[in-house]
Design goal:
single chain, alpha/beta, globular
Length: 253
């Protein structure tokens, strides 16, 4: 008999590690997938497995899928968290406002193509078994545009790249598409979209961005806990195709 697992992509990242620990604490068997698995070795839990995979490479995703199937691991919860986010830094010289095509391809390959490939293999298996749950990790930028003035004033010459907005808007479209496709197969597909999450940002950046948030602060990692667990709950069987935005009210003004 197959054993049920939660698979999290981009697991070695800031929020990926948090999601792994949260789900482990709530009784899930978790597989953390990333191209950098060294941080995942810090997770000491018998219910946790780390796995190296470039999710933008279909051959690697296929091999991973077959390996898990051979071990009788059934992925009934898939969290598409992998993304390449351009972190705000001070630029020493003026740069082009638009991403070059190399960055465009690299970032979309991970954030969109990678998420699609994970659904192509693991979502289809859920569909066949009539059991499954997919959570795509979005952003407040899945529904709004970035306020570039905040970045420009806090970080000289930095602007939020177009690729991030395209990926997060695209993930929302993918969420709606697969929620409709899989609805009759008892597979739910939803999206969790955090607002800005504090991670040792510069004080002047924090001061500027919190003026855009009605609650007056950036999110803490723990602010996402209840929403993720709500979407992951197997008893929550009638919610699909939704984008749950946890942003302190930023997107309502």
């Amino acid at each position: 008999m197959s054993k049920k697992y939660c698979l999290i992509t981009g697991a070695a990242g800031f929020l990926g590690m948090h999601y792994c620990q949260l789900l482990l604490q709530n009784g899930h068997n978790v597989i953390g997938v990333d191209i950098n698995i060294n941080p995942l070795k810090k997770i000491k839990n018998k219910s946790f497995t780390s796995y190296y995979c470039d999710i933008s490479n279909e051959q690697e995703v296929n091999v991973m899928f077959l390996n898990f199937k051979k071990k009788k691991f059934f992925i009934n919860l898939l969290i598409n968290n992998a993304a390449i986010d351009s972190v705000p830094i001070k630029k020493s010289k003026k740069i082009s406002r638009l991403s070059d095509i190399y960055d465009w391809d690299k970032e979309l390959n991970v954030g969109l193509k990678g998420s699609y490939l994970m659904i192509k293999y693991f979502g289809e298996e859920m569909s066949k078994k009539k059991d499954g749950n997919i959570i795509n990790i979005g952003s407040d930028l899945s529904v709004i545009a970035p306020n570039q003035d905040i970045y420009k004033k806090a970080y000289k010459n930095f602007i939020k790249p177009v690729t991030y907005s395209v990926i997060k808007h695209g993930l929302y479209g993918m969420t709606k598409y697969f929620s409709s496709l899989y609805a009759k197969d008892k597979v739910r597909v939803n999206m969790l979209s955090p607002g800005p999450v504090f991670r040792n940002h510069k004080k002047n950046f924090v001061n500027k961005i919190k003026t855009q948030i009605p609650m007056g602060r950036m999110a803490h990692k723990s602010d996402l806990n209840s929403s993720l667990l709500f979407l992951a709950d197997e008893k929550n069987i009638y919610l699909t195709g939704q984008n749950i935005i946890v942003d302190g009210g930023r997107t309502v003004i």
